[in-house]
Amino acid sequence: MIKQGKLNLIRREVERVTFTNNSRSVIKVEFGEEITFGDVYYLLNTIQELGVKRYAWFSNELYIFGNEPPTYEQ
Question: Computed over its alpha carbons, how large is the radius of gyration of the chain?
Fold first, then answer.
């Protein structure tokens, strides 16, 4: 199980990247042996709740990409 402090840190970083629409940022979360299904559920729920549109799961790593900035038409 991932300690709650680490989960909170990941959440704050995802919030920062989402809020600033920084499409050049990537958050990489590496899962070790201590990961539980609850931890994975928490992270996936967090990225859905915060409106993250782009993420990738590869092997034991979760990559979270910043959203593209909104376009304004005149």
Answer: 13
Query: CA 5 to CA 66: how far, in whole Å?
Result: 22
- Residues 52-65 have pLDDT tens digits of 888 999 988 999 98
Beta strand 54-58 with 26-30 is unpaired
pTM summary value:
0.79
| Cβ atoms 34, 2 nearer than 8 A | yes
CB burial of 14-43 (b: ≥16 within 10 Å; e: otherwise) equals beebbeeeeeebebebebeeeeeeebeeeb
Mean pLDDT of 10-34: 85
Tokens of 55: 């993420």
Q: How far apart are CA 21 and CA 35, in angstroms?
A: 29
